[in-house]
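Shipment paperwork, digital attachment
Item: protein structure file
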Amino acid sequence: MAEAHDAERHGPSLRAYFYVFGALAVFTAVSFLANIGVRHHVINNFTSFTIILAVAVCKALLVAVFFMHLLLDWKRVYILIIPALVLGPMLVIVLLPDIVMAWHYATATMVP
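Attachment content:
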């Protein structure tokens, strides 16, 4: 019984990991090419920023889905992500008055 369970393969194959590695290498090269394009005035800063940001998002998704096994364990991770998505904005809302009042207090007490 245990041998049959060990024979089952869970998760992506080794080939999938190599494909992801290749994609990450290509995305890294694209980021460097965008940076070189800005240095040689081929593209502007905003275009380079957009390319590098899109590449960073793609790389983060690849790493999260394959190496962190989110593709297979989404039901377990879902329980952790939903509270973080709720508590994050709540933390911003709770701390926003302190940030605003600290700025207001600092400018009011400045010595002219």
